[in-house]
Design brief:
Shape: globular
Number of helices: 4
Structural class: mainly alpha
Order of helices and strands: EEHHHH
Strand content: 5-15%
Radius of gyration: 16 Å
C-alpha cells in the first residue's frame, strides 16, 4: 500500500523572477525561496545594517547586474531604494504595475 501522495503543482505559481527597471535597463531580482530565506536570515541576525544590506544586495542581483548598477554611480540613498524595492518585490508587497 502506497503512502498518501498529493500533487500540489497546480497550487504553485512558478513565477519568473521579477525585475526592476532603472534608466530603461532591466535588472532581474533573484526571487527564489532559497535566496529569500537567506536574506531573511541575514536581517534576523541583526548584524550591522550596512553589512546586512550589502550582503542582501549581493544575493538579490547577479554580479553582472551589480556591475551595471555600479556604472550608474547612484548616490548611496538611491542604491538603498533599489535594494529596498527589490526586497519588497520578492516579498510580494509591491503592487504589480503594468507589464
Amino acid at each position: 500500500q502506497m503512502a498518501k501522495c498529493i500533487d500540489i503543482t497546480e497550487k504553485l505559481s512558478f513565477d519568473k523572477n521579477p525585475a526592476l527597471i532603472i534608466k530603461g535597463r532591466k535588472f532581474i531580482v533573484n526571487a527564489d525561496a532559497g535566496t529569500m530565506l537567506e536574506i531573511m536570515g541575514l536581517f534576523k541576525e541583526g548584524s550591522s545594517d550596512t553589512e546586512t544590506t550589502v550582503a542582501a544586495y549581493e544575493k538579490l542581483f547577479s554580479e553582472k547586474d551589480r556591475n551595471e548598477i555600479k556604472k550608474m554611480r547612484l548616490p548611496f540613498k538611491d542604491l538603498m531604494i533599489v535594494i529596498q524595492t527589490a526586497m519588497e518585490l520578492i516579498q510580494g508587497e509591491e503592487d504589480q504595475g503594468e507589464q
